[in-house]
Amino acid sequence: MIAERRFLQRTVALAAVIPVAAGAYGVLFGIDGIGRAGAADVSADSHFRYLSGLLTGIGILFWTCVPGIEGKTGLFRFLTLVVVLGGLARLLGLYLTGLPSLTMLAALAVELFLTPLLCLWQARIARLAADEPVA
């Protein structure tokens, strides 16, 4: 159980780099940073930077789950819900407007598949930890 717990911790720590890096990039470079130079108005850029800040925060909060991950089920589930809701919004956008870039499709896969799988894994580790006898 200890080895699996450590592997989960490392996996979550590594996976959280994605929203932190993508969010920080969006905060620093705005909507023009995704290859739409000059196409965005100030309000769209402001909204993009705001959402990028939220994305950064989500990644940081996932990092706070790493120490004592077996006891962070509530926060982990909440963060997963937020990510999945964002993924469902992205999926709706795909339906309404067409295929986005490969980067956005990869993000969709992380949001709708990887994050829920990590949540299920975290729940497994939490159950295993709860079932361990106290020494």
Can you lay out the helices and strands and say which pair or pack?
Blueprint: H1 2-15, H2 17-29, H3 42-64, H4 73-97, H5 102-131
Helix pairs in contact: 1-5, 2-3, 4-5
Question: Would you kindly provide a written description of the structure presented here, covering whatever features stand out?
Answer:
The protein is mostly helical and 135 residues long. It has one domain (2-131). The protein contains five helices and no strands. It is elongated. The relative contact order is 0.15.
Biggest sheet features: none
Write the H/E string, N to C.
HHHHH
- Runs with pLDDT <50, length 5+? none
Q: What is the percentage of strand-forming residues? A: under 5%
Shape: elongated
Mean pLDDT: 94
Number of helices: 5
Secondary structure: number of strands = 0
For the CA atoms, what is the radius of gyration?
17 Å
Specify the structural class. Answer: mainly alpha
Helix content: over 70%
Whole-number tally of structural domains: 1
Short description:
The chain is mainly α. It has one domain (2-131). It is 78% helix and 0% strand.
What keyword list fits this structure?
135 residues; mainly alpha; 0% strand; single chain
